[in-house]
Design goal:
The complex is a heterodimer. By secondary structure, chain A is an alpha/beta fold. In chain A, 48% of the residues lie in helices and 14% in strands. Chain A is globular. Mean pLDDT of chain A is 82; it is low at 1-29. The longest helix of chain A is centred in the last third of the chain and has 20 residues, at 270-289. In chain A, strand 3 (96-97) and strand 4 (102-106) form a beta hairpin. Chain B is an alpha/beta fold. Chain B has a single domain, classed as 3-Layer(aba) Sandwich (Rossmann fold). Chain B has helices spanning 21-34, 49-53, 83-94, 98-105, 108-116, 120-135, 153-166, 168-174, 195-204, 206-237, 255-267, 295-317, 335-342; strands at residues 10-14, 39-43, 65-66, 76-80, 140-144, 242-248, 272-280, 322-326. In chain B, helix 4 (98-105) packs across helix 10 (206-237), helix 6 (120-135) packs across helix 7 (153-166) and helix 7 (153-166) crosses helix 10 (206-237). The longest helix of chain B has 32 residues, at 206-237. The chains are: A alpha/beta, B alpha/beta. The interface between A and B is large, with 72 and 73 residues. The complex binds adenosine-5'-triphosphate and magnesium ion (MG).
Amino acid sequence: MLRQRTRVYTAPRHDSIPLAPTIITTMAPRSSHLRSLRRLGLILVTGKGGVGKTTVSTALARRLAEDGARVLLLEMDPRESAHRLLGLPPSGGEVLECGEGLYFQNLQPRRVIDRLVRERIRIGPIVRKVQASPIYEHFVAGCPGLEELVILGAALEQLEPPHARTTPFQVVVLDAPATGHGLALLAAPRLVSEVIEQGPFGRLAGELATFIGNPERCGVVAVTHAQDLAVQETLELCRSLEAEHGRRAELIVANGLYPALTSDASSSSPTARIWSQRRAANLQALERLAAAPAPVLQLPLLPIDDGPRLAAELARAL
Amino acid sequence: MTWIDEAPSLLLVVGSGGVGKTTVAAGAGLRLAEAGHETLVMTFDPSLRLKDTLGVGAAALDQPVAVARSGPGAPLWASLLDARTTFDRLVKTYSQDSATRDCILGNRYYHHLAGGLAGILEYMAVERLFEVYEEGQYQRIVLDTPPTSQALDFLEAPQRIVDFLDSGALRVAMKPWFDDRGRLRASRIPGLGRGLEAWLDRLVGIDLLRDMADFFRAFQPLFDGFRQRALQVQKLLRSKATQFVLVTGPDEARIPDALFFARRLAEGGYPLGPVVINRVHPEYPGQPPWNSDDGASILAWQGARDQRGVAALRSLLGATQTVVLPQLEVEPADLTGLAEISRRL
Ligand SMILES: Nc1ncnc2c1ncn2[C@@H]1O[C@H](COP(=O)(O)OP(=O)(O)OP(=O)(O)O)[C@@H](O)[C@H]1O
Ligand SMILES: [Mg+2]
């Protein structure tokens, strides 16, 4: 019922919206960002809450698929929102095809763990007994790093399937949780492999730590708003990446930039004042972002409601 | 009289990430202090935003610091919380001797638990709230809840602790699994014999199990205190002394989150105060230039989208009160900016 809306306007074509002026002189041509992302296997998209991680992940996956890669968009947020941007029903955990080379899955670690137990034990009543036991419950909920390993393990499995019969994905775009939890995701394999050295669990952790640690195979995209607090969090993210992981973000996406207000549109009205404030803040924030140790890609704020058209337009702008 | 003039002693500001919880919490604190209630604002915000907005500096990291403000009313205090520090302090409070304490604080499993376990941060927030409430030094306390990966972690944290303490997991963990030389006592589990050690080792590695067992054993004397506390905390959160303030944005992506949260609060018997719809863009004046190519079309789109969102939220929330905070021209970054928020609450 919420989804009912009347489209009384025609949104401008994307190329008619002027991007913010390129203040960042070191910015490489757009296509080179995509090339550097495309050679990666796993792209982890993180950033402050609400800045557009899901939207940018979807646009990016879509763009990479349009350019010819076989791409899986992996969402781990139980609130499921990426499907809307793809014009699909909720995935319910299955891998859904949603266009040439583009696939989508909403993956809940808990569901994967339950499935693993079913596959390992195989005997229905025993599986139910194990899963109903409080020990299982607390092992799963309380075992540090387990959920993170499961998600990363699932991504790795899609990139390097154990069975030759399965077609591998070239790229997995992971719509990761907000900054702090996103960093925890990166750190998990190493932490777990330090504590658990042997066994299947320890081996998986070790394998994932190697995979994550390889800058040729795994990269981080930080999404941000060009706005004070978000930029601060992004710069902190870059510092943690450097200090704790010895790595840099592959790309920073400054999302939702306000374009210039060119029409005379009552420039003294409150709306116009908000506008010029936002835009000034954008420009200032972009200047601060230029100090970050990663290239910055600018994406405009588009007057388009959440949905496939927004993803398509942003994919083109990437 | 608005809701805030009648607010009880505890306000819990909740909502999903990036909607402006910290700002609303600080604004509410300012408003309450101005109205003459001695007020403490507590936040877990890792970006330490509150520190800058209220101008209290890093000193507030350890304990409440008075906010230097002019104007009428009672003192306003701010405190920045850290989950790890709170947890360490809790362990110290409940440990009967220094050996127990050192054993817990030095345990590898504890380091993972205190640092990374989902729900601990959330639990620490309520735990600290309870501590301060019990001390009774402030007339009003406003808690800015931590950004959660799932909005409900926060409410469920105390119950999870109680469940965990009551569950069989603990009894199992508490068994003397290991002998003096640190070897697993396979004979403890009849019928499995020595095969078990190898099996468990293959699964998770024996070291982790050993750490876990040590941790639980050292922790045992503390459990009673913890359990009592968690139950009291739960009662407090559902009592008349508490009110939840739910913050959301007006955009469509936020609405399901807000509704979900509101429903869960109602189902759980938690008292929901107003829903604050933050950063609402004003309606575009005059005829919207829908076809124009520049920023004006976005202004019009944002205004229309936000008005639609506010209307949808109002009708979906039924009798629940809503408070609309406009998108300010200047984002509040100090007390003056905060006053703009505070007077609109
Ligand atoms: N470039 C853009 N132009 C217009 N709207 C956008 C743009 N980017 C994101 N949005 C809108 O912003 C809102 C939040 O985006 P999104 O859900 O992608 O954020 P998120 O970072 O994934 O949030 P969360 O932290 O809650 O997961 C959505 O309504 C989305 O449609
Ligand atoms: Mg998201």
